[in-house]
Protein 1
Amino acid sequence: MAGITGKDAILTDYANKLARLDAPKGRSLTQDALRRLVRNKAAVVSIVVVVLIVLVAFIGPYFVPWGYSQVDWSAIRKPPDFDKGHFFGTDQNGRDMLARVLQGTQMSLIVAAVATVVSVAIGVVYGAVAGYFGGRVDAVMMRIVDIMYALPYILFVIILVVMFGRNPVLLFVGIGAIEWLTMARIVRGQTLSLKEKEFVEAARAGGAGPFTIILRHIVPNLTGPVVIYATLTIPEIIIAESFLSYLGLGVQEPQTSLGTLISFGAPVAEVLPWMLLAPAGVLVTLLLCLTYIGDGLRDALDPKDR
Amino acid sequence: MIAATENLLEIKGLRKSFSITTGLLSRPLELKALQDITFSIKKGETLGIVGESGCGKSTLGRCILQLIAPDEGQVLWLGQDLTRLPAEEMRKRRADLQIIFQDPLASLNPRMTVGEIIADPLRTLRPGMGKAERQARVVRMMEAVGLLPEMINRYPHEFSGGQAQRIGIARALITEPKLIVCDEPVSALDVSIQAQILNLLSELKDEFGLTLIFISHNLSVVRHVSDRILVLYLGRIVELATGDEIYEDPKHPYTRALLTAVPIPDPKLARQRNIDALKGEIPSPINPPSGCTFRTRCRFAKPRCAEVRPPLETLEGGRLVACIRWREIEIPEESEAILGA
Amino acid sequence: MSKVLDVIDLSVTFALHNSEVRAVNNLNFSLEAGETLAVVGESGSGKSQAFLSIMGLLAKNGRTSGRAMMGPIDLVGLETSQLDRVRGKDIAMIFQDPMTSLNPSLKVKTQLSEVLVKHRGFDKDKAVTTAIEMLERVGIPEPAKRANAFPHEMSGGMRQRVMIAMALLCQPKILIADEPTTALDVTVQAQMLELFKSLTEDFGTALVMITHDLGVVAGVADRMMVMYGGRAVETGMVDELFYDPRHPYTLGLLHSTPHIAHRQARLDPIQGLPPSLEHLPKGCSFNPRCAFCFDRCLEERPPLVPVSEASAREKACFYEGPLSYEKVA
């Protein structure tokens, strides 16, 4: 007798039973970790601050009276002046600092986000494959990583700039191309220990092939270290971008980033302090908060009081 | 159709060694995990495999399932040699050959729900099966192993050790296998839970017509569940006989020593027994003694034992013994107390 | 016989994030000089925590109350400095995994002689000689050579012997062994139990053997105490409990353990799961799993009382008379 499952009556009974059951959702490891994270006050405050910065950076420009490349001829090199709407003052070209800081923050955040996504995507796949297959495959893949590590990345970025011009997209690619190396190493290390675990052996006994195991069993269990590492490298990425922009290899005028702003603000800091203070303040706050979040995540994902 | 007395599984001359690297410049050492393993398993029986550290019992279980590839030898499943099969073919047979692990929580993916874990082998090996049917089978299996179906969306860390082991058992059974290798399935569990799981395995074996290989270091547990018992020492078979034969009339000195060393939950018997306490410790499998590997600890060892490797002799009824002196050795009077009491 | 340890109303509580858990609840027992007491229980019974607290080795969020009198000294609540003088010298403890108990970067002889120098004031040479003698006494072959080795160069059984040697160097009155043979091979375990028996005889040490294995208890102990849910549920001489158990949990444990001489068709396991210490049942903690449970058991918790007037045996159960599963059928 064909039932819901199209097979025998017994199975149909069980299928009906399952439908009637109100099976409660379990408490996943992610939920546990989030609960622990929420208890960490420093991390929560940092998350709130970062969210605020992101919101202000992307929505703020609609509320600020001046555009980031707009020139106010009547106010060049002026300190903060609330009447004219220059809340953070103006730069040497008469452009509103607040608007520029917001735009710069936007750019730095976008670079950080994209570079992180790129490095995670490449790094996780590369590292998991190398770690799982082991042996010669692993040796070859890791030697490639070692060689790329040894190359000075500034040189690499300069070559890219020479070939493709000064393009912010390049910046993402360049930084992403560096960061994935460390991610791959970390993922490979984790994979090496994960593949010895019994549930992976159980999956092999269940007939799963290597790629099924990597995708279904190994990658989901990498979330912890990957998330922690990604959060802790965002500061690195922002600094790298700032450094590259400071050297003149990154963002093009009139667009700007935190690094570019700092690079313009530093030489005139004594005379026009507001040009340095604003972007530096944002950068420092962002980095500090991200570090707290990263620490909080590490404690949440690896509790000692288990 | 397989006749009831036909051999389901035949192992012939199985050999496995592991390479241990000791340093950049020195040659790697060879750890001889298994040597000259030859025996067979009949349909519907429970074969217990018992031994201490370094005996290779876990390696043997995994070699049978081809989770570890043996170096030499044959593993004949229903007449077909699994060691010669390409990976794709072997994968298809995995529905028939399953395994239950020692550490219940470590054998479950912490990021999957119970329902997903139990359904996993079905997803892989029966890809044509619809989700509804798969779920129905999962619920059926959960009830069969004594788990409440409402727990289907929970995660492994929300369960106790005994319940987690039930999940592992449900996963092993979902593809309706013919043979299950149980690798120390109760060693990590509390005593009262052990008994529940042992009873469960026995019921399931009858209900599903299974053949079991039960690996454990605990001779009392092995004796309780097994029809025949295979005793391993340092990678070699020393004795294979029925549970009663092993207990009443052990032929190999190591089997005797094991029996006297097993703790008995009976104070009067425990006081009477004369423990045939073995001297020394188990030698390293990297450098096993020449001739009979057991001779360094054997009371009955003679110079000949160092020169000749004892062949595995077949006695009546299919018993196996690997000792050149088994006919000559008498059971001392005192030992009768533990065995015959 | 004199008592070397008298534990009175010992309780151990752990502070968790939003609750408190009582791992040990009003434990009372005593230990006579030279005897071997087995403390039996499964996970969550509190058997290890009770002795860790007496030794002052509890985790940071643990609190002990009650008294543990070793002679005139109360071990509970001792200052660390005073505790250090007593630990290792009058009372010692060995654990299940000798690898984590021994310092992997120090040679064996260094770790052993350290104890002698500190507690008995020996000078270095005398300490090393005594240590080597003790290694021989615990059955380590070529003791002088082994003393120069590092822990990881020895096998599990060897390391456990080193632990025992270290614990006995100062000839303590009390030795607490927490599952000392669980991680060892069966033949090595047999050697170890023989060693315990001979050492306690020779040195007159009282031994507390914490274990879940009834076979080990039968082989080594004089008296035993069964714990469940943080309390003692039955105490008495080993023979008494094995042949005439008076608490259903003890009966259940006996029936759950496979006996190599009797091959039963089925074991009689105890139904249900060990209790969660945070949500103990009302009345007797064992009542959800008890085959002999009646109404009173659901309301009142049975106190630990003598089995009969003149008896030193105690049980925490309202059921009177001998127990057996035939009666329940």
Protein 2
Amino acid sequence: MKYVEEFRRHDLAQQLADAIGKAVDPDRQYNLMEFCGGHTHAIFRYGVQDLMPPNVKFVHGPGCPVCVLPIGRIDNAIQLVEQHDVILCTYGDMLRVPASGRKSLLRVKAAGGDIRMVYSTQDALAIARDNPGREVVFFAIGFETTTPPSAVAIRQAQAGGLGNFSVFCNHVLTPAAIQNILESPELRTMGSISIDGFFGPSHVSSIIGSRPYEFFAEEFQRPVVIAGFEPLDVMQSALMLVRQLNEGRHEVENEYTRVVTRAGNIKAQTLVAEVFELRRSFEWRGLGLVPYSALRIKDSFGGLDAERRFDMPAIAASDVKGCECPSILRGVKRPTDCKLFGTVCTPDNPMGSCMVSSEGACAAYWSYGRFRQSGTPDARESAA
Amino acid sequence: MSAVLKRFPVRLDIRRGSVDMTHGSGGRAMAQLIEELFVRHLDNELLRQSNDQAAFAVAAGRMVMSTDGHVVSPLFFPGGDIGSLAVHGTINDVAMSGARPLYLSAGFILEEGFPLADLERVVASMARAATAAGVPVVTGDTKVVEKGKGDGVFITTTGIGIVPPGVDISGDHARPGDAILVSGSMGDHGVTIMSSRENLQFETSIESDSAPLHELVADMVAAVPRIHCLRDPTRGGLATTLNELARQSGVGMVLREDAIPVKPAVTAACELLGLDPLYIANEGKLVCICARQDAQRVLEVMQMHPLGGQGAIIGEVVEDQHGFVQMETGFGGSRIVDWLAGEQLPRIC
């Protein structure tokens, strides 16, 4: 734990806060988007915003794996359980995400559906081996970080002749999504949001490296700083972004050098390329159809693709009426702009995906922004 | 024929046998299970009365009563098992009123096919825990459900206790200015259970903290009878317990993250699984709220007891109509420590 605690030290945080305070130009605003839910989580868990000057604002991006999955894909997964009687293996975060018809995987499980929470693809493979008479489907979601383990599982299942195992692939790609945000009309022409710079993903970049961000840093003239998920990483990266903006630079810088290289993890990339190929387009909640933004299983592993093995029609499902998750995911609206926020939509009864995961902007605001608006004095003030 | 007929000519095959439906049918098999397994281990004068109820005299004063169902999986884990847990859990619920626990009852729901050897292990462990705590199980019940309709064994225990004169402890007694204390490190039990589940293959040196807290409580109330609130932060962990107390008392709370004891191995496991130790269950810890001027005395008494050695003052009660539990983070910011929403699930990324 020693090497984690070092990235949460109060004295260093204070030094960085002072440095950022000195560096900012008081006459301008710094709107910095953290793409990743991991950063959103760290910002709220450690209270990083409290240490920032008032003109440095975090804008929460769409990088929460469960938040961006469109409802139709969850409906598909539910159909696998209800109509094809499969054992569905899923990461825990997915269980509570609302699907169509007031369903969720958790509710389907309660009604008797065989849904198992797993911690890794290896758990799903073990379940398939232990249940040779049942079809076992792994509900694969997530960005580039979770893709290599899915590739490993697919290769192992193929090599081991595990005929009852398949993968429902929903893996998505980060650079395509960031580019989509930068190309959105709100940002480019309407001016309803302004994003001055990006915190680049941490774990995702350990796989893909820092190179993929170079194109849009240049093309869209926005600085990107690859940042670790620890709170000191976030603060150091904020300082680097502030400096770039002050100096009119728009480069890709890497704060997370202890893990991320420019080229990334070549072995993982090769593995992913062997098993997956680009989809022409994929629907993201909030962003709509984004070209070449997701992966599908290649023909050579087609037998392990749940979408080919089962009849899985594309389902066009709409969000709950009034739910602002789509705009919140684009950074256009804040959770408190949503009429459902805190009234009918709470972490105990989530209407939209952003309220489900602790990486979702709404869940984070629920635990924090709600308090900020309440007029309750800050812990640090009342303790003083 | 002069030999006395044995009630059960063939002894219960505890080593190889398993629970079947006849053990819950009310007939001879059930009587034999009770006699040769339950009574043999849990034996005491009141249980030996063999009535459908236990009869005993009561002292004058305030009594408390509490009940708790235990459905833990796995049944056996480092530092305890469902049997000892069922004894400790209810003793602690009774003790959190400041009461001295007197008697327990135990209801067993057994699943058809459950090995009698495991059942004996559980009952023997209960008996040891009850004896060590000085709180006997004086009445009980056994039911059997069909295979697939239970998870081995479920145990419900009920306890009664007597509150010493002058002690008035309740969740709605927290007042602004009060100090908040815990008796030791947070999250040990929950992390032990998670690490022993078969689909989570990581090993830790952590053991469940399952323990009866009534003697610690007795020392605390003897030293400071006017303690305001006591509660054991079981399911939902410290965060949930403090939110309950804040709501009941209509106050807010401010915690200092640095002051909350968490073992490094628990922090590490939580880090790995994406969990927060403040939301993880404890089975041998308590939260105490008392007037600020009493806090140091309570802390001293706590730290003298083996179950309170790591006790600490972790924060204070403040005025707040919204009932927020806030925390100054070790990092230097602040955050809300909210109710647990749903189950605590691991994060993906």
Protein 3
Amino acid sequence: MTRRTWVRLDNASTMFLAARSDADPKVFRMTAEMDHDVDPGVLQQALDATFDRYPLYRAVLRRGVFWYYLQDSDLRPTVVAETQHTCAPIYQADERTLLFRVVHHRRRINLEVFHALSDGTGALWFLTDLVTEYVSLRFPDDPAVRAASGRHGAAEEGGIETVDGRRDEVRHELEADSFTRYFRTREPAAGDASPRSRGLGRFIGASTEKTLTVRGTRTPDNRTRVVELTMSAADVLALARAEGVSLTSYLTALFFQSVRAAEENADAVNTLGVSIPVNLRQLFPSTSARNFFTTVRLEHAYGRGDDDLGAVCRDLDAQLRAQTTEEALGERVRRFIRFERMIVLRIVPSPIKNLLLGLLNRASNRGLTVAISNLGNIRLPEPAASHTTRMLFHVSAVRPQFCSVSYAGRLTISFTSPFTETGHVREFARFLSARGIPVAVSAARVTEEELSAMAPTGEGESR
Amino acid sequence: MKRCAACEVEIEGTWATCPLCGTRTEGEGVPDPVPAVPLEFSRRRVLAMLFFASLAVIVASLAAQLLFNRGDDGVGVLRSIWLGVVALWLVVMMAVRKRRNVAKGTAYLVILLGGVSAYWDYLTGWNGWSLSYAVPATCACSIVAVLIAVRVMHTEVGEHIVYSWMTAVLGLVPVVFLALGWVRHPVVSIVCGVLSVIALAVQLASLRETRHELAKRLHL
């Protein structure tokens, strides 16, 4: 009898377990939109082949006394038509299921992942390989398929999340997380100038200011409200360049402005905070598909000077640059790990640890108005690229959030929220269209009214 | 593709109204890239069902009391437990339902609690404790509670004025009982009456706003 491989859950992932709730099951979805209706049979074949190369994706999550751990399983994934709402819960305590699912609808191939398993970059690798495999099987006679001859590799650049392309022949094993690999060693005692964490506020990096938090009407069945905006990447990039800031900073500032315009009591609380994940692979090269990111928090206090969009995005850009230097990020992660390795915390049983981390999460939520995640500019390898028209991604959210990604010259910004209101998206879209940028909107129906408006046409179900 | 003239955006799918602003869309629909997934449940309906089911149980429980003899020789201590649970359930339910307007919720609770305690007193052989203690104590507490709550929570005058008046006036009801000679132990009723007079004096200070609010609500 062979023993099953297992590995302890890394520290970023543990947080997702503590922070998940009915409205936010901590699931994210990455979508590739094809130029044809997806063939489920072929997709299943492609999934089977891709799955074999990703032992990590075989893992199920189990709870030890002190920690959660990922354990290898014999489960096989099946592609399913989209009959559940987006980002439906994947991990249910005591249910041993795979931590991801592949869903298709019309032209879309969706990969949904429980965030404790992998992050956006890791999932993008999987989806890239899946789509490449799918296209190779679906169009065997395509010249691009013949030329590519089974070489896989995703490369992207730009934005704050960057993946390096050196990953041919990489098997994404169920292996130690990259946090352990890079941050295992104790820091040299000499010149110990590194600030020790003092209290929760320091650890979560919360603001001392009262931060605006958005309230709204919860969706009827806790589903995530998703609205996707598609536009030309070059057009928006030109707007950002005109202000001399990165796309991430520009979009964040515009998000702030939109939230303030849509929120009624925006004037009562002037500080807005945003959480942005930073891919650590760009500084600490890693081929692990497991979570390897940290988040930074930026804020802007309105009503204390120049509040026009340009000034706000330059303010945010400066904060982002300062917080994403190698030293700043390294220090942040080390502090996080030091916290995780505190002996007191280690011997606390996991339900209590969950409770503590949940409280911590709630404390940090109070300092956040919105969250954003920019995956940057993706390039798919051939033959996937020639049949993929659009890439999108979004994540279940406890607060208004957007996830952006650009691919083949098209920027998609997917807004998610636990609330039915779309006022901030409206302001965002109107700002762009007023500047002559054509915006296409796609939204999933959420409220009873929206769904009943759909019923008479009998167009709801498809395959 | 559909188009929203107000937002100046194209809309994928078959939306009759803009998903962003609700304006009627123009143009031909295209196949929706995302499916319309039916609701698993509707929070509003679940809550409504819970509310009406609770209400039915409470009303039935209160009515069922009449099947037993009045006084202690009936179901005895079981009745007190039963009524206690039902009354608590009713209070929690109304408090949750009216949580958005504290002043309104308090006024509702006074009426509910007063009614339930008088009924309870009647069922257990009318010892008069409801009129001597329960009703005046509830009224007195509500007056103080509303006075404090609306100030601490910075409730807008228009939001609470009617209910502030209501709790203040309800505070005079125990005094009426006292005058009618229904009350055996007058202390609590007197305290309540004094508080009520103070509250009314406070309310008189905002008479203009009261008049404005009443004119608005009673507008034909």
Protein 4
Amino acid sequence: MSILVLKPGLLDTIQDGGRFGYSNWGINPGGVMDRYAARVANMLVGNSAEEALLEIHFPGPQLLFEQTALITICGSDFTPMLDDKPLPLWQPIVVRRNTALHFDALRNGGRCYLAIHGGIDVEKWLGSYSTNLKAEAGGFNGRRLEKLDRLFQGECRFYFPAWLPNEKDKIALNWRADTTKVYEHPHEIYITEGREWHLLKESAKEDLLNCNFIIHPSSDRMGYQLKGEKLQLQAAVEQVSSGVNFGTIQLLPGGQLVILMADHQTTGGYPRIGHVISAHLPKLAQLRPSDCVQFCRTTVAAAEELLFAQQRELTILQRACNDRLKQLSCSV
Amino acid sequence: MQIPVTIFSLGDSAATIELGQQIDPVANDRALAIQQWLFKHPFDGMLEAVLAYSSLTIYYDPYIVKRNYQPDTPVCRWVEDRLRKACNAAQAEAPKGALHRIPVYYGGDDLHDMANTKSLGLDEIIAIHSNRRYRVYMIGFLPGFAYLGKVDTRIATPRKLKPVTVAAGSVAIAGEQTGIYPLESPGGWNVVGMTPVTLFNGKAREPVFMKPGDEVEFYAISKEEFQSAQN
């Protein structure tokens, strides 16, 4: 049973936590841009945190649920509508067979995640469900979704039609994830020092930490190009290519910055000025072209603590979601 | 000879072992030996170890390291210690890699320009490029893109200022590096020829057959041989 794509969106791809272990072949990890929203989405519908789900950009797709299913939409607010009635975000919802989902308007954020209980039944490529568009592999035939594609749902542990009152097309289950802390101060992005940080001119260091940088329209899943003060090194550096990371901030020859995102190349040869901390990558993934970024410096140790705090909350959330789903299934 | 090692954090989920800033077979081989040691002795939470010219970058999940080893120090310090141990324990050299012989039809778009700038004949460029055994220093940029080096300085050519669309199978030169485009892609390298060999096959169990530490020799084939090999 399945979800039918009535109309594709700008960029709808199947993703998961990423494909690790193949960068040595030049195959990047990829995976979701906002790992936090994707994990929460999977947990809310009773999946494991790294299950395959749909990453949606605005304008979003129109999807027909061909079977009653437990879904959730997490991340950006694109005003999701089920047959013209609004759907809440960050909340599990049972939707009836033959209802259609579309997205009305961009309220905020960069991308959202549609998770479905049981996950999406596609084959793994090199250990991951993520779509690698460059390699044309993984996810749904290695490509973005197109009209009349049909996504099949993975194995169901519950019988959802029994959860839905007769007269209703949908029911939002009465719990939701509180994620305000993760996304508060959306433009304030913490960074740690990169290998070539100390090679910046003193004035450039000050500009980096005191000025706003604007996300350029050419930004995508590979990287965010930033517009702002031109930053200069004390002297030119000769550097050979080496490994780069999700969140690495590179200084381009013209003095502009680029932040590497989920689909970044495995290696790069530009000076590494800094790295966005993992705990703030979800915020960054929800910024859009023409949004501004303000960088604040922190240490790797402090960045770890912030990440661990997020992870502890996710562990609690996962347990709570599973308990509630189990309770509900016993009571219907 | 011991190469001095610098280990630094690459954000809060990776660390790089740096062995200098040069395209040098000794440093590359040392990085490869450390990588091989780490593959044999991984730590919980280690996601991958990516080899480059003169560095090795280790990606890890800091939460798993924290949970499984409960270090007293920040995880980044623990990882750094671990990597230092790896550097000390690894063999000085990696075992010898495989040799790949790659047929090339030398009729690339940029061959004539190169010949003009370098005041060399086409056959001279072909002879110089194919008369050397190259080391696979690293795979990066695109799935299966092997960075080979070094080319003879007589045919070393700087990257183009503006990237153009480069066809899959293009054999190209940038600086003292040479490489083969496994997929069609924008690129700034100077294309000297085409190979019919498939470098990336997403459907294969091992999609990429070249590995860092392998060696490559190019040999010239005719246009007809290239075309019949393609079909």
